[in-house]
TrEMBL record:
The lineage of its organism: Bacteria, Pseudomonadati, Pseudomonadota, Alphaproteobacteria, Acetobacterales. PANTHER family: BLR1237 PROTEIN, TRICARBOXYLATE-BINDING PROTEIN. The keyword Metal-binding does not apply. The keyword Signal applies. This is Tripartite tricarboxylate transporter substrate binding protein. Residues 1-24 form the signal peptide. Keywords: Signal. InterPro entries: BUG, Bug_dom1. It holds the Pfam family TctC. It comes from the Bacteria. SUPFAM superfamilies: Periplasmic binding protein-like II. Belongs to the UPF0065 (bug) family.
Length: 327
């Protein structure tokens, strides 16, 4: 009698195991309380704009509010450390820009509180930041070629501004120097807005920075846009020349994406990535990004990770060639 019952019992246990395993195989992360995106820079900047846009589009798709928390300082690493140390439950994410993820890790002597290469994981890329080379409206140069000619005539006399040693703007200037074969003086500022003030006053000569930092001054006639760093151009300035037109091969862009702490479950990564990429497909979101010098760059975790690896190698080569070290 017991022998006749065993097959039925075995079948019942098998069915029960399959039922228990099914939810795990198709599990979808559903947050049970508000999530937050940490931003390593002050409110009002390009990174803050991108984070708030992500929060807006992700919240209804995740089914919970998403708030933005600004933790400025240490070149964005205060926020990066907080995100890396957070529980991998998908409730704390990080706005991760090019500089934090691909430049700082390559700087010799950089003392970083976390290793972003291993302690943060890519979730989704959001936007490409188009860079532009600008000078003050009163400056005598109207093209990149004219600026290069002046720099060659007076080696080391002209300057380029950045937002700090090792910043994307700094490395963009170093790439310009190499491509053009000129010597320029690097002047570091505490922010792009301060550098723009000195460009307008002619206390600095040029800067290559993202359009979100300078678009309004260019449109207002205070700064002159000599060229765009993105070979694809940008709708804000459809007739602007490209850096590569004068210096072949020179292209300067950066990106801003979303990362999370190491150990995020695959279903959590998938839920965030899907919410972000679906939101970027909205025409109104694309227009908002474009109005601020950005364009959507929707990439899932794998493509975003591959981009990071390529950019670390490329920026690392620039850093080594220029001999840049942390101050």
């Amino acid at each position: 009698m017991h022998r006749r019952r065993m097959p039925k019992l075995a079948l019942a246990l098998t069915a029960l195991a399959a039922a228990a395993a099914a939810p795990a195989a198709t599990a979808q992360w559903a947050p049970d309380r508000p999530a937050r995106i940490l931003v390593g820079f002050a409110a009002g900047g390009t990174g803050d704009l991108v984070a708030r846009t992500v929060a807006e589009v992700a919240a209804p798709r995740l089914g919970q509010p998403v708030v933005v928390e600004n933790r400025a300082g240490a070149n964005g690493m205060i926020a990066a450390e907080a995100a890396a140390r957070a529980a991998p439950d998908g409730l704390t994410m990080l706005l991760c820009p090019t500089g934090n993820m691909t430049i700082l890790p390559e700087l010799p002597g950089a003392r970083l509180p976390v290793d972003v290469r291993t302690e943060l994981v890519p979730v989704a890329n959001v936007a490409l930041s188009t860079y532009g080379m600008v000078v003050g409206a009163a400056a005598p140069w109207r093209t990149v070629a004219e600026f290069v000619e002046a720099a060659k005539a007076r080696p080391g006399a002209l300057s380029f501004a950045s937002v700090g040693t090792g910043s994307a703007q700094h490395l963009a200037g170093e790439r310009l120097k190499r491509a053009a074969g000129v010597e320029l003086l690097h002047v570091a500022y505490r922010g792009a807005s301060l550098a723009a003030v000195d460009l307008i006053a002619r206390r600095a000569d040029a800067m290559i920075t993202n359009l979100g930092d300078v678009a309004r001054q260019v449109q207002g006639g205070e700064l002159r846009l000599l060229a765009l760093g993105d070979a694809a151009g940008h709708p804000l300035f459809p007739d602007a020349p490209k850096l590569g037109d004068t210096l072949p091969g020179l292209e300067v862009t950066s990106w801003l994406g979303i990362c999370g702490p190491r150990g995020l479950p695959p279903e959590t990564v998938a839920a965030w990535s899907r919410a972000i990429l679906d939101g970027l497909a909205e025409p109104a979101i694309a227009r908002r990004l474009a109005d601020n010098g950005l364009r959507p760059l929707p990439e899932g975790p794998e493509a975003f990770a591959a981009r990071m690896a390529r950019d670390r190698a490329a920026w690392g080569e620039v850093i080594r060639a220029a001999g840049i070290k942390t101050e």
